[in-house]
């Protein structure tokens, strides 16, 4: 492959190529939001309104962008956010993302509803793996999932709080995205126009919820979709969170927090960090942009626990903006998936490298030697 950095300078460049290489039904699943999808746009628009003031005459700088979280040193202050149905979006995505995390030394958060079994994908991350839990209603299933994830090498648990019910994602409904996949003539015709995706599917097989197959009828798996809808999520409570914190032997992070009171109570209940996120605009179209919620939450609980951010990060500049507003670390889901869809198995690592070089450039322009200096800046946010 020719050096892609010559042609693809931004995540938006990769997104355009990714759309051309992915069947429409898979693309709509990845790219869509809830309702009219204004929350997706709001995340990006509000991030772009964060202004950072440079300071000059600092002499020669060699910006250090490494950081420590939960006693682990990461090479970048950004990780791979959880994405469900990854193998539908791009065949073999779970393994590629885990291997990217291992090589780039960044966290990879594997979703409960990704398409590789935790026992397979966990070792590929080589200690960089985090496991995202959609809370099962059955305590026995929860205990078994946590045991399997920890045994596979996942060190950090991410409890997703912001999916109390299935959201209204019209683009997905129109494309009849379902799991297990129901292959229709329309899907076949779309796949035929995307040969790289189709060849990957032939190598990897139809995407399945392999982590969850242990809990349904293996003979048919026809009940799997119903199991996911009826048995995961919708019952998370403060008591459930407290029990989960007791069950997991490592750090517990609560993802999807937008309200400072919720953040404060997460800490009081036993959480070791919170992720400020509106689920990528995929749950409530009227939700505030994640970046607007970051400052108040960082002010309330920052210093007690790490405050992490996931909401529209598409560049090293976006990472810098979030860190300056109080985040200790950031995550991006779609960006890494766009890289995979655009460039294949090496695409996610290309995104990590892109973020690295962009962030170093931003720190040079701002006059910041390390992330502590960046976090000490006083950014300005434009009007909503």
Characterization of the model:
45% of the residues lie in helices and 11% in strands. The chain has helices spanning 11-21, 24-31, 38-48, 86-89, 93-104, 118-124, 139-151, 170-174, 185-192, 195-204, 224-231, 238-247, 260-269, 290-301, 316-324, 334-343, 347-366, 371-375, and strands at residues 50-51, 67-69, 72-74, 78-80, 108-111, 129-133, 156-160, 252-257, 273-276, 307-309, 329-332, 380-381. The chain has a single domain (11-48, 72-359), classed as TIM Barrel (Alpha-Beta Barrel). With 384 residues, the chain is of the alpha/beta class. The mean pLDDT is 90. Helix 13 crosses helix 14 (290-301), helix 15 (316-324) packs across helix 17 and helix 16 packs across helix 17. It has an 8-stranded parallel sheet with strand order 4-11-10-9-8-7-6-5. It contains 18 helices and 12 strands. Helix 6 links the parallel strand 5 (108-111) and strand 6 (129-133). The radius of gyration is 20 Å and the shape is globular.
